[in-house]
Amino acid sequence: PVDMADRNPVIVVVGAGVAGLAAAKKLKEYGFNDVTVLEASEKVGGRVATATLGTACVDTGAQYIHGTSEENPVYCLLKKSGLLNQIPEMGEETFYSNKGHKVDVNIARDAYGAGESMIRYRGSNTGKSLGEHYAEKTQGVIDSVQDDDKRTRMQSVFALVGKDMLIDIGASDLHRISLDSWQYYINMGDSLNIPGYDSLMFQLVDKLLEDFPKDRLLLKREVSKIKWDGSFSVAPALCQYPVCIVCENGEEILADHVIVTISLGCLKAQASSLFIPSLPTEKMEVIEKLCFGNIAKIFLEYEEAFWESDVGTISLIYEDDIPASVSTNKMQWLKNMQYFSVLRPKERLMLYQTIVTFSVIIKKIIVISSSSSSIVIIAVNGAKSLGSQHPNKDLQVLFAGEATMKTLYGTVQGALLSGHREADRLAAHYKKTVAPTSTTSVEKQV
Ligand SMILES: Cc1cc2nc3c(=O)[nH]c(=O)nc-3n(C[C@H](O)[C@H](O)[C@H](O)COP(=O)(O)OP(=O)(O)OC[C@H]3O[C@@H](n4cnc5c(N)ncnc54)[C@H](O)[C@@H]3O)c2cc1C
Question: Residues enclosing ligand 1, CB less than 6 A?
Answer without folding.
Answer: 14-20, 38-41, 46-48, 61-64, 66, 222-223, 261-263, 266, 295, 297, 373, 375, 401-402, 410-412, 414-415
